[in-house]
């Protein structure tokens, strides 16, 4: 989920500085808002209970996505961990294991799977959707710098980066924060199209997995019907807290 050694850069080679990293200490404030927000979170839109695969970021594993998965289960979804241990970074081997994991869930449920990916997990999610659109219902990314020059196999080829920037052929919602202290937020936004949306939240990078506004946005996205996906509704109170 995190890396401070120049790992993530946007297309222009920018990366957050040390002041941005220090801003991640706001995570403690985010933690404090989760419990009071639970009643409101449980009133979020509910979908059809389809299966959701949740992918963690760099240096973390399924423990980091526990809150997301438990929340989605409370809303009636079949939320699944990735079961690959800790995410040590891009690799061909990991990519192949995730292909197998997606196929396993698709075969089990006999219907398309939504994928929620945090940071590097979102980059994997988009590539899976690009390869297997018949098996992926939609993708929701959380602070995922898919506009950076890193690929799921660890390569850094400019021509491949340009291809990855294009959205896969399924609905994609990118949740990002301009105060992200780990990755450049400019690299976390989808290109505009009829099946993409960018949702700005006030959040830290390492707190996205339990930030109430992020959790609500995930629930809203997953509640979209498979046949009638629509962008995030920013009317009412949404317009005051989401960008």
Which key phrases capture this entry?
alpha/beta; 6-stranded parallel beta sheet; 8 helices; 13% strand; globular; disordered N terminus
Description:
The structure is a single chain. This protein is α/β, with parallel strands linked by helices and 243 residues long. 34% of the residues lie in helices and 13% in strands. The chain has eight helices and six strands; from the N terminus they run ααβαβαβαβαββαα. Strands 2-1-3-4-5-6 form a six-stranded parallel sheet, sandwiched between helices. Strand 1, helix 3 and strand 2 form a beta-alpha-beta unit. The N terminus is likely disordered.
Q: What is the first-to-last residue Cα distance?
A: 23 Å
Rg value: 16 Å
Please give the number of β-strands.
6
Task: Please state the structural category.
Answer: alpha/beta
Strand content: 5-15%
Separate helix tally: 8
In the predicted model, the low-confidence regions spanning at least 5 consecutive residues are: 1-8
Main-sheet strand order equals: 2-1-3-4-5-6
Helical amount: 25-40%
Outline of the structure:
The protein contains eight helices and six strands, in the order ααβαβαβαβαββαα. The chain has 243 residues and is α/β, with parallel strands linked by helices.
Q: How are the elements arranged and paired?
A:
Layout: H1 18-23, H2 27-41, E1 51-55, H3 66-74, E2 78-80, H4 92-109, E3 113-118, H5 120-131, E4 136-142, H6 158-165, E5 172-176, E6 196-200, H7 212-222, H8 238-241
Parallel strand pairs: 1-2, 1-3, 3-4, 4-5, 5-6
